[in-house]
Amino acid sequence: MIYDLAIIGGGPAGVSAGVYASRKRLKTVFITDHFEGQSAVSEGIENWIGEIKISGADLVKKMHAHLLAYSEGIVDIKEGARCDAIIKKEDGTFDVKAGATTYTTRAILISTGSHRRKLEAKGAYEFENKGVVYCASCDGPLFADQDVVVAGGGNAAFETVAQLLAYCKSVTLINRSNNFRADPVTIEKLSNNPKLTIIKNAVIEEVKGGKFVNGVTYKDTATGTLHNLSVTGVFVEIGLIPNTDFLKGVVDINSYGHVVVDPRTQMTSVPGIWAAGDCTDGLYHQNNIAAGEGVKALEDIYTHLHTK
Prior knowledge:
By secondary structure, the chain is α/β, with parallel strands linked by helices.
C-alpha cells in the first residue's frame, strides 16, 4: 500500500504530528525505535505547558497514550524500528527503508531529534541523573541554593549559566579553551555576576560522589595541574549531535548535521519531505518548540497532499 505520510521519530515533534495526522485522517506509518526524547530521563520537567511538574518518564507515557488514543485505523505505529534510508522514486513517492521492511509514502516528516554530546570524564556515566545532567530547563530548579558547575563555552552553556544563576548558590563555568563560542554580548552580561566563576583552559577529568555528586576534579590544560571543586551538580553543555546520519545525500544538511528547513513550513530542500524538532537547524530547541514545529509541519503536509 501507499501511505499518505511517514513520520520518522517518536519524540514531541513526531508524536504531535502523529496526533494531528490522525485527526486529519492521513494514512500514516509512524516509524520509531522508541518514544523517549532527551527529557525522558529528567526527574522533573517544569516547563511543559499544561503540566506544572512532570517527570520525563511520565511525559513520555502521556504522549504515547495520546497518540495511541487516536491512532487506530489511521496511524500505523512501528515501534522498535529504525529508518535506514529514504529513496525518492520517479513517480514522486518515497520508499522508506526500516530494516528488512520498505514503506512507500507520498510525504515524509523527519523528527529524529538529537542526542547530547556526553561528558568524557571518569564517573560521568555513573552519576548521570545523580548530579550529572544535560538539561538546565528540566532539572535546574532541583539545584536551588547549591553549588554547581557548567561544562562548555557556547551559547547553550551561557544560557544554562543564566538560568542557574537565578537560583543556585554559585555557578562555575569550565571551558576547555581560552576563547568562548558564545556571543560576546551574552558573555559580557553574565561575567560580572558575583555568583559566577569562569575557569578557562580546563577540562573535567573526574566526577566524584557517593549516592549523588559531591565534587569534580578538573585539569588546567596549560600546566597539567589537577584541582578539586566541591559541587552537587554538573551541567553538561558541550554540544548536540543530530540524529541525521541516514539523511546525508537525501536533503540539505548544515555543517553541524542539522536538517535545513524553511522556518515558515518546516519543509526541507526536497519537496515532499519536512523536518521538525531538534534534528533541524531551528534557532531554539525545546520540547514545546519541537511539538509546535511538528504541528506546523503537519498542517503544511496536509495542504501539500490536498492541493497536488
